Amino acid sequence: MRRVHPQDLRPGQAIATLRGVTLPDGSSSTLSIADGRIIAPPDAPLAPAVAAIAEREVEATGWLLLPPAADLHAHIDKAYTWSAAGEPEGSLEDAVACWRAFGSAVTEERIARNARRQLDAALRAGVTAVRTHVNYHEGVDPLRGIRAVLEAREDYRGLVDVQVVAMHDQFRDTGMIREAIALGIDLIGAAPHLSTDPHGEIDRAVTLAEEMGIGVDLHTDETLDPESLDLLHLARRTADWPEEITRSAGHCVSLAVQPPDRLAAVLDAAAEARVSIITNPLTNLYLQGWEHPVATPRALPPLAAILDAGVVLAAGGDNVQDPFNPLGNGDMVHVAAALVLAGHLAPRRAWDVVARGRELLGLGAAAGTVGDDADMILVRAASVAEALAERAPDRIVVRRGRVVATRLTASDAVPVSTRKEVAL
Question: What is the pTM of this model?
Answer without folding.
Answer: 0.92
